[in-house]
Design goal:
Number of helices: 2
Radius of gyration: 25 Å
Strand order of the largest sheet: 1-2
Structural class: alpha+beta
Helix content: 40-55%
Shape: flat
Number of strands: 2
Length: 85
């Protein structure tokens, strides 16, 4: 009894995928065409791994604090300018 259309079962989704298309015609028009795509699929396992790395890395925590402080500073300036006008 076959479960799906694939002969060897269900294929797992890839983490990253690279697609490339190159076409070149001379007499039949379309002189040159180049198309490249990179797709990164965020799976639950990849997301958990990324979060764990960000939590335990002191550089990422420092960067997050810098971005948060800059955001608070810009928001405060924007709010005060809005109240003055």
């Amino acid at each position: 009894m076959q479960r799906g259309n694939e002969p060897f079962g269900k294929r797992s989704t890839p983490i990253a995928e690279f697609k490339s298309v190159e076409e070149q015609y001379n007499k039949g028009v379309l002189s040159k065409r180049r198309e490249r795509n990179v797709a990164i699929y965020v799976t639950p396992l990849l997301a958990v791994g990324f979060v764990v790395v960000l939590i335990f890395s002191p550089e990422s925590r420092a960067l997050a604090l810098e971005i948060g402080a800059k955001g608070i500073e810009l928001g405060r300036d924007w709010l005060l300018r809005g109240l003055l006008e």
